[in-house]
Amino acid sequence: MSVQKISILGKESIHVGFNLVQHISDTLLDTLPSSTYVLITDTNIAPLYLQPIAATFALATDARFPNKSDPARPRFLTYTIPPGETTKTREGKAEIEDFLLRHRCTRDTVIIALGGGVIGDLVGFVAATFMRGVRVVQVPTSLLAMVDSSIGGKTAVDAPLGKNLIGAFWQPSYIFVDAAFLRTLPVRELANGLAEVIKTAAIWDETAFALLEANSSTLLTCLSSSSPALDLNHPLLTLIISSINTKATIVSRDPREAHLRGLVNFGHSIGHAIEALVTPYVLHGECISVGMVLEAELARAAGVLGQVSLGRLRRCIESYGLPSTLSDKRILEAEKRIVATGGQPISVDTLLDRMSVDKKNAGKLKRVVLLERIGKTRELRATGVADEDIRKVLCPAVRVVAGTPGTYAKPPLPPPMLELPDADPTQLSGPVPNAQIAQVSSATSAPSRKAATDIPHITLSTPGSKSISNRALVLAALCKGTCRLKNLLHSDDTQVMMAALEQLKAATFTWTDNGETLVVTGSGGALSVPPPGTQLYLGNAGTAARFLTTVCTIVSPPNTTDTSRAETTTITGNARMKQRPIAPLVTALRGAGATIGYLESEGCLPLSIKPLGRLPGGTLTLDASLSSQYVSSILLCAPYAAQPTTLVLTGPAVISQLYIDMTIELMRDFGIEVTRERDAASGDLLNVYHIPRGTYRAPESGEFVIESDASSATYPLAIAAITGTRCTLANIGSSSLQGDARFAKEVLEPMGCEVVQTETETTVTGPPKGKLRARGEVDMEPMTDAFLTACAVAAVATDGGVGEGAESGEGKNVTRIRGIANQRVKECNRIQAMIDQLAKFGISTRELPDGLEVYGRPLPQLTRGASIHCYDDHRVAMAFAVLATVVDGTILEEKRCVEKTWPNWWDDLENKLGVKVEGVQLPEPAKTVRTSPAPKTPETIPSILLVGMRGSGKTYIGELAAQALSLPLLDFDAEFSRVYQQPLRSFVLERGWAEFRKAEITLLLELMKAHARGWVVSLGGGIVETLEAREALKKYAKAGGCVVWVQREPEEIERYLESETERPAYGEPVRAVLERRAPWFEECANYVFGNHTALPGGASALGSGALEAEVSRFFGHISGLRPNLVSTNANRSYFLSLTYPDVAPALPKIPELTTGVDAVELRADLLHESGLQIPSPSYVSTQLFALRRATTLPIVFTVRTVSQGGAFPDDAPVEAGKLLKLALRLGVEYVDVETTLPAPLILDIVSLKGPSHIVASFHDWTGSVKWDSVAMKAQYEAAAQIGDVVKLISKANSVSDNFKLQDFVAKVAIASKPLIAINMGAAGQLSRVLNTTLTPVTHPLLPTAAAPGQMSVSDIHRALHLIGLLPARRFFLFGSPIARSPSPTLHNTGFAALGLPHTYGLLEGESITDETRAILASPDFGGASVTIPLKLDIMSVLDGFTAAATTIGAVNTIIPCQSPDANKPRLLLGDNTDYLGIIGAIHAVSPGLRAPGSALVLGAGGTARAAVYALHTLGTKQIYLYNRTHSKATAIAEAFSSIPVRVLDKLGNWPAGAPSVVISTVPADATTIETGPGFESKVYLPPNLLDASTKGVVVDMAYKPAETPLLALTKRIAPTWATVPGVEVLLEQGYAQFEHWTGRRCPREIVREKVLQWYNA
Ligand SMILES: NC(=O)c1ccc[n+]([C@@H]2O[C@H](COP(=O)([O-])OP(=O)(O)OC[C@H]3O[C@@H](n4cnc5c(N)ncnc54)[C@H](O)[C@@H]3O)[C@@H](O)[C@H]2O)c1
Ligand SMILES: [Zn+2]
């Protein structure tokens, strides 16, 4: 056992090795004597290591203390806690401390922290404060802990606002780094630790970084549980040791993080902010990986770090599978989960906010470590950076501030601290750079300007050419030996190419000259297939995809025994890549003998390519009209063929000849001479190339310099052109091989620019701003990539003009670009992209077959502030950046897309071109998931399809549903007869069943298309007979539509069908048909509606309108139009737990039982179907149907298992799942899902929930999970992920357990998921009283309570009153005369039923008096009803009004409410519930009634106004108003400016159809149904007032006598109409008042009974 000792803070306390457990025991016992050793670990590590460690320790103890009763013999205690970041809290710390105290641990205790960083940080912090500090030993088991967290003595716990905010410096006595622990560490955790290794190397140690770069694939796979011991020279141990050494060095020089130690926070300033938002789903190392890249970008933007180093860092991070951007799918996925549980989404502001609680901040500046190159930071501490700069890096989009190049210079960074101050090890915080001294840092490249002329002159060189870089990489890799590549482009494309070449073992790559030079060691063409299961992932790198397709064919085939290699190479890319064409190349290669398969779509990636070793050579034919890259791809590999190759290009025209020439030229540089054939007669060049056999050689010098990219060069040159300034580019001139190098001469010069070009340099000077000439026609075929730049310039080219029409002035603004058809199949359809995005500036264009015309406009006419979509295409982004320099406020939406060819474009635009760029965060609609979705409207919901047996009542239910949802109904059979012009029956008789089914499915598919939204469709009963129809229905349901199976008892169906003749007879027994179809209905429908005639307890007979109410509620809910959920506005809510084995006996008592509750729970586990342990689905459905017919309250469906305190067997999760899914199919509103069910089952249930809510529940029957334990927090988090409501139940042993529960609730309240948190048992009753959401309650009439300690609603209210949380309030009726008012009876009955301590009394008076005012002002005033004559007068003493009161113009209810103003804490709100009374009363007799076509109001007083408002709220299309005094009616109609009201001269004459609702507000004795003498002064109600042929509702507001003339008339002439006497309206408005005042549902049935008793007395 070799141990390497590393010194930290002057002591050799770090011991590194492999298999150190014995060494640890010996060292502790010998050098840290103690009476008690306490080992603390987590539940992941304990089962793996605890036992052997304890055994080793015991043996070592025995050896030293052979006598077991020796008082000096130390104790060895162990304690295990839950794993993960959620444990690292103040509570987690307290739990450990309690353990130590319980075991009487004293100051001489030695604590051993065995585990990852979480254990290390937490246990370290415990040790730091326990008994004012005890000794601690770190035994890190995760890589992260080994290399980072265990070293240096920083300990901490997290707080809700951020990570590590509370902690201490506490140096461990020892740190034992035993790499053997890594054998069980999951790979993801290994990579997580490597992130810290990368960090340490990046700031301090380039050698270690190079080791990391070279070993990514081996490091991640070197350890498995069975792997042999690693020696200290293994790269993993080398890296661990070097990392530890670096950290130890830094810590030793600055133990308290005054300056130098700040460096190890590289990546953490931003990384911690990310981590605070995505914990625990994304790991620490993963967050700091993103943080490192972003902080490196910050350094690059500040001009401190070069792109080469940044590229290395990012690539290294990615090679370990670590995330490098905020858009990494791990982070997005985590964000989704966090948001779903009520957390915050990631935005630039939240990140900056989190960064602002960083301990290391210095005033307004945030401390960030700025990297200067790999292995070195800008200064020996973190640098103060402004928010604005961080914001820019974090933002996904940029805004270019229009301005003259060279005029913007960024404020410089504070001067660097390059030497360490004399360290004062006790100093707690370092010097803060608060003075921004104006001094340009040596590394900052301010815009360089030449002074000679009066216009700004920028000089720069652009990044290496992508085309040349990619070719050079392939050439150098195919070389034998080494080749040094200089000025290689560092971009995604080249990174992808290098990674793929490495995977193919084509070459190895190493960086020298601080990353300026890439040393390529080529294999000479000996390539191998990557191991099985690996793919070459090419992202969206088109060049790599094309070149590598041929490269993969020349890979050597593996010998048959080699299982480490796959049989074929697979290349693939991102979604966009998978659409880009590759067919011509594949076809050509197949023609040459290659075997290439398309794995997804024909003609595109992914490809599977068989290794051939060599292509045969000979003649090869290729269609080169789509891309020259196909040609280059073959050319590059052709020398490695078995025979010399002749490449013949075919197709309409060869595209981009220049790129072909470039490839040939570069091949020549690498020693292979390609010859192009000439026509013997004419001497013209032919499209035939001869490639000899050979092997590439590096150029003589061993070095190859890559020319700058000519396409990139077009942007700064175009900026000079468009802004009227001058720009000189080095490294690109007339000798360039790149087509785009002609852009300056051929496009810009004719537009009025001055262009000077030498062989290697280009200078463009633009004409004065606004003076660019339109170019006329330009053929850009040789420089297709530059056409986007040309478009940007052409957009403002209006002056003069060249080309056709220019003289006449007609073509003044036309630039016609041709020869660029291939740009339609680039990163995006670039022609379309330019057309669409130019339009945002107000620029018109016209598309041509091979290009487009751009019609320039004068600059001032261009639209400012355009937000440009870049299609993830670098060229689109940079081209529009050119235009943005002259059009203010332009936003480029995806700044990162430039990474492809000019990764630091935006930095260069600011730093080198001197144009300011700002960060912008675009509003992201997708992230606003938390705000409730826009309310659905009937017209837009997917149509509801009804299926079911004929005779099950589909059409009737359909009619009711359609009425309830205000949707039209389509009857399939009727539609069939209409379309085929023949009744169903005769169609079948004439043409047979087979023909009928065919016609039926055709019509179904048509209807599903034509009536996709906003219909209720009742389908034919036999529709499920055809497979095609079933598939269509299933697909529809799966996509979110509702397919409802209307069910009825088979006997009922039989009975009905026997009497029916209209439709064809089945020709077989009804029962047989039913049995055959039932499984099909079951499979097609995602909902079931029970239209049963006979239900347990005679449920169907309960009250008229029960079925209508059920249909309205059911369809309103499942369609999402009116989800039947408990209102979230109520201050408390309850549900009643029904504990019956059969609900039937409860049904008649439901009104009383549900007093005061908001929902009813059906405990399916308690249902008892005779002879069965588990009730059958059909029994459970019937029970549900019956319950639902008896109550409109939402139902909570629960299957409680035995271990959670219920009766359902624990070992039957499948059956439990079946019942839960059944409940969702039946439209049950809340489904209780125990978090202990199998995860896949839970996911399955959650995916089916539709508008229903999941109550995710966890019950600890024993009370062993404490509210202040981390375990309970973990339970909350698990439940919050699946539930809309979280339910946590524990058990109280003493009353104080309820206070712990309250603390818990207060803490998770920020997470804002509705939470039911309750302690069972008598001692837990207080928690039931204090719980506010969906408290489960019982009722004295129930056989048993569902849980120990359960209380009734009125018990809870009484308890709340007694403990002062529900003070008694006084309520009043104001008005006169009121002595005979039923209101006191109404409200006092309600208060009593709910156990509320309030009283309701009268204050009779005709005006507002001092007494009234005193009552209104008294603190115990709870509210008042207001009646005549005060409904208007009262308004003057109120503070505000509801919309209803304002529109109706009167107040009948006063509601005190909380005001935000502290000086006037209570406001009096005036409301009018009269209209609610009218609506409520109408719905009570006609539940489905909505949006009547027309309705009539009689009278023109205050009540008439309420009636009009009620009808308007109901959605009435035409409201008629009739009053004897016409002018009064007109006055009302005019007062309702926003509600159209039609005043009638005469009753019985209906200009827009007869009314289906009539509301009389006239006193009963003022109406008559008789004519003649004595009745002249009364309103005559003619018999044609009501249309007896339809159904309707009559409301008479007069509440005495019980039968008014209007009601009498209705009974006589329209008996089908429903009637509402005034007292019912009064009741309904009273319920509404009650509910406003108390926030509780009024116990309607009880109140109603009392009031009617009183009324009839
Ligand atoms: N104090 C510091 O200076 C410092 C520095 C860096 C990070 N940190 C902190 O460290 C924490 C992260 O540490 P971590 O990544 O080690 O997390 P961790 O402690 O949660 O360990 C990661 C996971 O791996 C498991 N595990 C650990 N070792 C194992 C092994 N040998 N075999 C099997 N499973 C094993 C753990 O149970 C856990 O589930 C964060 O809280 C971070 O803030 C502190
Ligand atoms: Zn860290």
Structural overview:
With about 1650 residues, the chain is of the alpha/beta class. It is built from 51 helices and 64 strands. The strands form 15 sheets. It has an eight-stranded parallel β-sheet. A seven-stranded mixed β-sheet has the order 1-2-9-6-5-3-4, with helices on both faces. A six-stranded mixed β-sheet has the order 52-51-53-55-56-54, sandwiched between helices. Helix 20 (about 630-635) runs parallel beside helix 21. The protein is globular. It starts with a strand and ends with a helix. The model is unreliable at about 425-450 and about 925-935 (pLDDT under 50). The chain binds nicotinamide-adenine-dinucleotide (NAD) and zinc ion (ZN). Nicotinamide-adenine-dinucleotide (NAD) binds next to helix 4, helix 5, strand 8 and helix 6. Nicotinamide-adenine-dinucleotide (NAD) binds near residues 119, 141, 145, 152 and 283.
